Amino acid sequence: MAEWSTVRNDPNYPEPLDAEIIPLCDALNAAGFVTESSCCGHGYRNPAVWFEHSTDERIESLARFVIRRESGDYKPHYSVFEKEILFEGYRWALHIHVSDVYGNTPEVESLKKSVQAITEVTRSIEDWFASERAAVTLVANPTDAPYRNEPSY
Questions:
Q1: Range of the domain at 75
Q2: How far apart are CA 8 and CA 54, in angstroms?
Q3: Which pLDDT does position 81 carry in this prediction?
């Protein structure tokens, strides 16, 4: 399997990435989750990304952050994180289920809704990673914490 940077940056790679899902793969890789495979759905399936196992705690933190952002009465999409047991180790999948897309929905409209969902999930992953980095910085530099002498409630 080729490295992400090779697949991402080589226009002559034999299996080019779906342009619609590249931002999501970029966000996952930047956050330290090594993507293995992806598909934008092409207007007739839900988008998905498969990535290497990290720590369960870290993936659970990401999943809860993303899912919390998607809560509400009406969800234009929702994310499902799945852990797959392999012969050796594990792999994770992120499936984005797009609402209001049916068998008779035109592929162009379905793909447009998929891209909107991919964009929202990408933004959530980027925000999660930024908050994780901020928390690590805060732990590394506790004297920089605002109101450090204030009581916590």
A1: 4-135
A2: 21
A3: 97
